[in-house]
Amino acid sequence: MSPQPLSPSNFGDLFDSVEAFLFDCDGVIWKGDELIDGVPQTLDMLRSKGKKLVFVTNNSWKSRTQYAEKFRSLGISVSQDEIFSSSFAAAMYLKVNNFLSQNKVYVIGGEGILEELRLAGFTAFGGPGDANKTIDLKQNCFVEHDKSVGAVVVGIDPNINYYKLQYGTLCIRENPGCLFIATNRDAVGHMTALQEWPGAGSMVAAICGSTQKEPVVVGKPSTFMMEFLLKKFNVSCSKMCMVGDRLDTDILFGQNAGCKTLLVLSGVTTQSALQDPSNNIQPDYYASKISDMLDLSGA
Fold first, then answer.
1. Which tens digit of pLDDT belongs to each residue from 89-126?
2. What is the rounded average pLDDT of the residues 161-167?
3. Which of 95, 161, 198, 219 could in theory staple to 86 by disulfide, Cβ–Cβ 3.0 to 4.6 A?
4. How far apart are CA 8 and CA 296, in angstroms?
């Protein structure tokens, strides 16, 4: 069935049938550090109508606490409990799978992953701490790696380097049973307001190439995070609407979980890409940006 443009004729039915709106952040709420027009007013309207709001982001650069602070800095009040990031999902995956506390976690990614892992009680290292480590192949160098590393978590990492790739590769290939966890596989993302940048998918692909292994993906479109959402908010998936700008992560996540789906064209997906005959991921609805809901509500 073809997606419907959000309009006065269908908005009421969608709005009345949904108890919780799940929002992606990059390309939906903001681009880089700039809010997309009409976001604060739209979120205020939804809260005033009794809707639950949840923010489900694949961007692992920040922890939930850091994301709550980013919302505050942009003038939006969001509690940490309303935020589900892929950095948090990585830590929860290890927790629910009884990852041994004596094992360590090596991180290719940002401080957000390290913080969430430590909050969950794990010993984690790497990330920004290895940003300036270099390798001189002319010196016949040999990288020693920690044999107690039981998992490598890979997320978005603007400071990716050859040392990190080698360290992660050694852990996965040489440490028996070492897990390879990807926060997400987004190809690109709005890391700044002006243009798209390579996403975590490019870092994950590098480790896939060197290890010849596929990761466990904990971010969207995997429904791993949905298990936590359902426990916390006690809302059935049929009464949730996933709002996002990516077909292959946000919309597929919503569909996999049985939610209603709304694609916004304020991020990476264009209307021509949505309507391309080769696209087989069709949302229920689409709109230019989330403030279209505000306009249609008459608030």
1. 999 999 999 999 899 999 999 999 999 999 999 999 99
2. 98
3. 219
4. 6
Q: How far is CA 204 from the centre of its chain?
A: 14
Which tokens is 77 given? 């009040």
User: 2: which DSSP letter?
Assistant: P
pTM beyond cutoff 0.90: yes
Token pair 């909050």 in the structure block, residue: 119
- Which is catalytic among the residues 19, 69, 111, 196? 19
Q: How far apart are CA 127 and CA 154, in angstroms?
A: 9
- Asked if residue 221 has a cis previous peptide bond (ω within 30° of 0), the answer is yes
Two tokens at 7?
A: 């309009």
Q: Cα–chain-centroid distance for residue 25? A: 8
- Please give the structure tokens belonging to residue 117: 């892992």
Is 34 a residue of the active site? no
Distance CA 159, CA 213 (A): 23
Report the C-alpha gap between 164 and 244 in whole angstroms.
Answer: 31
SS3 letters across 102-123: CCEEEEECCHHHHHHHHHCCCE
Q: CA-to-CA distance for 202 and 179, rounded, in angstroms?
A: 19
Contact 198, 160 (CB under 8 A): no
Q: Does the pLDDT of residue 236 top 80, yes or no? A: yes
The answer to whether residues 44 and 291 touch, using CB atoms and an 8 Å cutoff, is: no
> Distance (Å, rounded) from C-alpha 231 to C-alpha 189?
29
What secondary structure does DSSP assign to 208-220, as a single string? HHHH--PPEE-ST
pLDDT tens, residue by residue, 180-198:
999 999 999 888 888 989 9
269-290 b/e with 16+ CB inside 10 Å = b? beeeebeeeeeebbbbbbbebb
Query: Cα angle vertex 118, ends 116, 122, to 5°?
Result: 115
Residue 34: strand pairing partners: 31
Coil, helix or strand for 152?
strand
